[in-house]
Structure formats: structure tokens, C-alpha cells
Amino acid sequence: RHGCLRYDQTMTAAAGRDLAAPHGWALEDDLRAAIGTGQLSLAYQPLVAAEDGALRGFEALIRWRHPRRGDIPPAVFIPIAEANGMIHAIGEWVLHEACAHAMRWQWNAQLAVNISAVQLRTSGLPAIVAAALAASGLSAERLELEITETALLDGSDQVVEAFTQLKALGVRFALDDFGAGWSSLDMLRRFPFDRIKIDRSFVMSMQSETRSAAIVRTVLGLGQALSLPVTAEGVETVAQLTALRQLGCDQLQGHLIGRPKSKASAPSRQPWAATGCPDTVTPSGRRG
Ligand code: C2E
Ligand code: MG
Ligand code: MG
Ligand code: MG
Predict the structure, then answer these.
(1) CB under 8 Å, gap of 24 or more: what pairs does 235-241 form?
(2) 177: CA distance to ligand 4 center in Å?
(3) Per-residue pLDDT reduced to its tens digit, 163-201
(4) Residues with CB under 6 A from ligand 1
(5) How many helices (H) and strands (E) does the chain have?
(6) How many CB atoms lie within 10 A of CB 20?
(7) How far is 241 from 246, CA to CA, in rounded Å?
(8) 236 and 255 in contact (C-beta within 8 Å)?
(9) Ligand 3: distance of its center to the CA of 1 in Å?
(10) What is the rounded CA–CA span in Å between residue 153 and residue 282?
């Protein structure tokens, strides 16, 4: 009523603090204590080929089990960590932990790690990624960094330089939650992304809303025009899976295929059977 207010991530962080304050506990202090005390862990969600369900890799997703409050979702604590700078310590831990885990997998699956734009804005990220790769022995080609479109991903020299250095290491980039944020097309123009991930909200409504279906088709066309493979997130039904396969989507992720689990494991259910495609989800990528 009093004008225009532009959202920025510190508002979510402030909301998190407001949420915690009346209960007499400070999320922020607890998060500081959580780092290095085993309260943080990683879950892994499978990424599969849309064509035949072959396992391609896993996305690492952070989990925080608070000793008294139980599980606190990353959507609540990551924005707080971004606002107060703790994201640097957390992000470094995630990279080391995920790369070390990936080396213990029995096959050379891809590893996707979420990176906050805040991490990219400081000069240290390429060195941190290089150190995580060196410490684990993981080859850079197996690592894909996922970045959510955000106002923080500006064209500043710092960000462009970090991007360039990381690409030179051989690491790839995915543009996460595509379509849900803002200036996504500009992002694709300015940065050499290697993959687009369509936001879950479009996939979830593509069967019920013709507009969502049109947007999904258009993003897939955009990926084709830019020669970028597209991953669909949030695939929950066989109808979505079938439609995405028919539309030529490259990769699928979602509860239908596999939920995030504490250990990387091949999906046990085989939703492809329902589409008339041979079930092929095996760790080695071979037909089984
Ligand atoms: P994201 O990177 O887009 O990750 C996908 C989110 O969708 C995950 O939520 C996952 O559990 C959820 N998901 C996957 N399939 C389905 C589905 O079929 N249905 C529904 N309803 N949800 C599904 P999660 O784990 O709560 O993570 C939320 C966000 O937090 C992530 O979104 C990512 O932006 C951020 N995040 C997670 N881990 C990290 C991390 O290590 N570092 C940073 N910087 N951010 C992280
Ligand atoms: Mg992601
Ligand atoms: Mg996403
Ligand atoms: Mg997301």
C-alpha cells in the first residue's frame, strides 16, 4: 500500500529469526553450534535418464537434525547462513563431504552439489572446490554445481571470474529452479551453464494447467536451441514421467524415481515399467 518492496534473501533469514525468537531460541546460534558437531549430514537423491531410467548420478542435499527441534529444512536455515556468512563454512563442508562420498560409490555416477550465489561472490570458491577435488581424488568432470537463479548472481567481475576458473577446472554448472526466480534468461545469456533444471512448480502442475505444460515445452525447446540438456525436478507421477519423456527431457528427478536418502542407492522402484519402457535402473547403467 505504501509502494514497492523488492524481495531479497535477508528477508527470509529475518523471518526465520522472528519464527525462532518467540520460542526463546536462536536458530542462528544453534546453526553455528551445528557446524562440526555432526548435526549436519547429506542426503542423496537419484538423477536418471528420462529415456530409459538409467542412473546418471545423485544430488547432494543438506540435512540438519537439531538435537531438540528435530529436522530443520534447508529452505529455513540456508537463507540464514547466507545472510550471516556461515554459508562459507557450511558450503565448504558440503563440498568435501559430498566429494569424499562420491569416491566411495561403486560406479562413476555424477555428483550434483548445490552452491549458494553468496559463495560464488567471494573469491575463494574455485580454490575450495579444487581442494575438495584434490582431497577426495574425485575428477572434476564428475562434479556439477547447481546454482539457483538469484539477484546475487550479477555480472560482477568477481562472479564471472569465479565461474571461469571453475569451468577451467572441468567442473560443470546447472541453473537450478529455472523459471521460478527472476532474470533467468539473462542468466543463461551471461553465464556458460551446462544444464537447465526446470523448477518443480511447473512439473507438478503440467498435467492440470495448460499454461504450465506450455512453459515446460518451451523450456525444453530453449534447452534444445542452446544445446543444453534439461532436467525436470519434482517428478511425482507416471503421467508426468511419460509426458516428459515424450517431450525429449534429458534427465528426471523426483519422489516417483527416488527420495533423498542418507546413502546413495539406486532407485528400487521402477516407474518405467508403467510406461512400457524396459526397467533399466541399475547402478552400472546397464540394462537389468
Ligand atoms: P533444490 O536444489 O531445488 O533441491 C530439490 C528439492 O526438492 C529438495 O528439497 C528435494 O528434497 C525436493 N524434492 C525432490 N523431489 C521432489 C518431489 O518429487 N516432490 C517434492 N515435493 N519435493 C521434491 P530440500 O532437500 O528441502 O532442499 C531445498 C533447497 O535447499 C534445495 O532446492 C537447495 O536450493 C537448497 N539446498 C539443499 N542443500 C543445499 C546445500 O548443500 N547447499 C546450498 N547452498 N543449498 C542447499
Ligand atoms: Mg539443486
Ligand atoms: Mg531445484
Ligand atoms: Mg529449490
Answers:
(1) 235/203, 236/204, 237/207, 238/271, 238/274, 238/275, 239/207, 240/203, 240/204, 240/206, 240/207, 241/50, 241/271, 241/272, 241/275
(2) 5
(3) 999 999 999 999 999 998 766 788 898 899 999 999 999
(4) 45, 61-62, 73-75, 78, 91, 94, 114-116, 146, 148, 176-177, 200, 233-236, 253-255, 260
(5) 11, 9
(6) 19
(7) 9
(8) yes
(9) 32
(10) 37
Which residue is associated with the grid cell 555432526? Answer: 38
CA of 200 to the centre of ligand 1 (A): 10
Burial-class residue 7 by CB neighbours within 10 Å (0-12, 13-18, 19+). Answer: exposed
Percentage of the chain surpassing pLDDT 90? 67
DSSP E strand stretches across 129-187 = 143-148, 172-178
Cell numbers placing 260: 533423498
What cell was used for 133? 577435488
Q: How much is the mean pLDDT over the chain?
A: 88
Record the pTM.
Answer: 0.90
ipTM above 0.90, yes or no: yes
Q: What length does the chain have?
A: 288
Angle at 59 between CA 190 and CA 283, to 5 degrees: 125
